[in-house]
Structures are given as C-alpha cells and as structure tokens.
Amino acid sequence: MIKVSLTESLRKLRDPKILPQGVYDELLKGEPLGKSESSVIHELVDDSAVKVTREIDASLVRRLIRLTADDEGKPLHRAEAEALALAKELGGVVISDDHAARSAARIVQVELHGTGYLLGRTYQEGQISKEEVIKKVGEMRRLGWRLSEDDYHAILEHLRTI
After folding, report:
1. Which among 26, 43, 49, 70 has the fewest CB atoms less than 10 Å away?
2. Contact 72, 103 (CB under 8 A)
3. Per-residue pLDDT of the chain in tens (162 residues, 90 and over written 9)
4. Where are the domains of the chain?
5. d(Cα 110, Cα 32) in Å, to the nearest integer?
6. In angstroms, how far is CA 52 from the centroid of its own chain?
7. CATH annotation of 2-115
8. Which of 112, 160, 6, 39 is nearest to 152 (CA)?
C-alpha cells in the first residue's frame, strides 16, 4: 500500500532525480531482504523516473570519506559520499537519514534532508493531503524507518501546524 503511493509520489516530483551508481547498487542489496525502499527505487529506475549515473568526482568522494572519518570518528559510507559529491557537482539535494552524511553535507555545503522531506515535498506540490502525510510517517516508522521518538513527535507536531 505505502510502496505504490510513495512510488507514484516520487515519480511526480518535479525536480530531476539522479542517483550515483554506488547508491543504486547499495539500495538494491536490500531487495532480497524485502526492504521496501529497494523495490521502490528499482521500479523508479526501470521506469526512467530516476536516472542512475556513473560520473562522480572520485577525488571528492575520497575527500568526503576522509573528512567525515576525521570529524565524526567514523567513515562515511561510500554510497553517501557519492550522493554528496554528485549533489555538490549538480547543485542538488541529498536525501539521507545518516548522521555522518549530515556532517559531511555541512562541511561541503550541500543541502541534505531526511526521508521525511520527500513526504513534505509531495504535500507541498499538492500530491497528497496533510492527513495522508501524517499516516505515511506512521506507516514508514512501523515498516522500519529509523526515527527517534522525539523526531517522530516533532515531525507530527510540525505537520499539524502547517
């Protein structure tokens, strides 16, 4: 149920949607495990709603991994580094809930938002109602979206006030 409507919502977002090959490969590893985001992305790429690109500045990827390891004490995953490098090159936005990715985005001045941002965008573009967004946030959390209790309540409070 959520997969179908989320797929359609992502497909309808006006902005171009581009994934580095490394991110796509990483996401597909979750498909045999039944991770819903894997099948959503696979379908969007198959339908050409999301483009996969191999052209990434490898030196920036390495630099991001090093910077994050120094700053956070743990390395940034290569897939997130590739997404950040691509966004830096294209002036795009990265969607990630990874803490190290957030730190790296601040360092290289790349706009980064969490998964909830996508739901907010679909609401802003008039694709779903506020009630549907609130429902989807709860569904995503029940399906394994890692979100702290405080962040969950902050999102719900924000949604109720807009």
Report:
1. 70
2. yes
3. 344 456 777 777 778 889 999 889 988 898 888 877 788 888 889 988 899 987 788 898 998 888 887 766 777 888 999 999 999 999 999 988 788 888 889 888 999 988 778 778 888 888 888 888 888 888 877 777 777 788 778 777 877 777
4. 2-115, 124-161
5. 32
6. 14
7. 3.40.50.1010
8. 160
